Amino acid sequence: KTRIIIDCDTGIDDALAILYALRAPDVVVEGITTVFGNIGVEQAADNTLRLLALARPEAEIPVALGASQALVRELRGFSQHVHGENGIGDVQLPPSNQRLVSETAAEFIVRLADENPGEIVLVTLGRLTNLSLALDLDPGLKGKLKKVVVMGGTIFKPGNVTPVAEANLWGDPEAADRVFTSGLPVLMVGLDVTLKTLITTEHLELLKRYGREDNQAIIEFMDKSLQHYFKFYRDANYVINGAPLHDPLALMAALQPDLLTCRQMKVRVEHQGEHTSGMVVADLRAQPRIGEFIEVAVDVDAQRAVGVFLSAFM
Ligand code: BDR
Ligand code: CA
């Protein structure tokens, strides 16, 4: 079984990724760490606890609070226009009795990696602030994490926050550059591939009809929160009746890397440019010289990936 920590800014697609991880076979969720991004970090933690109460109330999976702002930048607002006021499409889930752990997100990541060297896969679904802080706490972290799967960035398609930057990297570009040049075994799953895996209203109908009986509450949550997400993608991106599974694809890739086609690339994340901050600069020259090698997803078997996602709930 793959042992994972999910680091997320629990918005709608983060929620889908968490629910997928709680239902997928062959995975142990060792903990969930939260970060600002789609919403504030406290709200991200509260959403996470409520999702755990909905999907796995008996498990007491540890949840840690992480960074409330970027390493050096002022907070530039949240993404409530995409994810709703509360980050999960304004669906009101019952509160949880579970408390947050007393460690910070960075401390939690460092301790788990230290206690289980070579075992833990960290899946980041938000800003890379917590992981950057974890590198400060333990410079030896790169030899202890098995892999870091990052949902973020884009190389071959436009960005979603600026013409060249994707939200998770744009929100803390200093942290992203630090992580990408740290020597950690990073797999970047960017917008250019996640935009190929759409969940549609037809898929939701399938889930409602064929979803397992004990998953009906989860499916009802997905249905309601996705209405918000569909509306945003229709109005802002002309996607009709569908929305991309950004964060779930990164999570699935951590468990089934063969869903993706990947390439080694040397990359840096721009953090000084006025119009280019958060952009992934990939050195695609025959003899790359800028940045460090990471693995980058360049394509996905989209039909299979969506099938894998849906089947976890059926
Ligand atoms: C990423 O940004 C967030 O809004 C989503 O949750 C996802 O992690 C997509 O750019
Ligand atoms: Ca996210």
Task: Please sum up the structure shown.
It contains 12 helices and 11 strands.
Topology of this structure?
Elements: E1 2-8, H1 12-23, E2 27-34, H2 41-55, E3 63-64, H3 80-83, H4 105-115, E4 120-124, H5 129-137, E5 147-151, H6 167-170, H7 173-180, E6 186-189, H8 191-194, E7 198-200, H9 201-210, H10 216-237, E8 242-244, H11 246-255, E9 260-269, E10 280-283, E11 292-300, H12 302-311
Parallel strand pairs: 1-2, 1-4, 2-3, 4-5, 5-6, 6-11
Antiparallel strand pairs: 7-8, 9-10, 9-11
Helix pairs in contact: 1-2, 1-11, 4-5, 5-7
The protein binds beta-D-ribofuranose and calcium ion.
Structural overview:
It is an enzyme of class 3 (hydrolase). Its EC number is 3.2.-.-. Keywords: Glycosidase, Hydrolase. The chain is of the alpha/beta class and 314 residues long. It is built from 12 helices and 11 strands. The chain is globular and about 55 Å long. It binds beta-D-ribofuranose (BDR) and calcium ion (CA). The site of calcium ion has 9 residues, from helix 1. Residues 11, 13-14, 38, 79, 82, 125-126, 151, 160, 166-168, 191, 246-247 line the site of beta-D-ribofuranose (BDR).
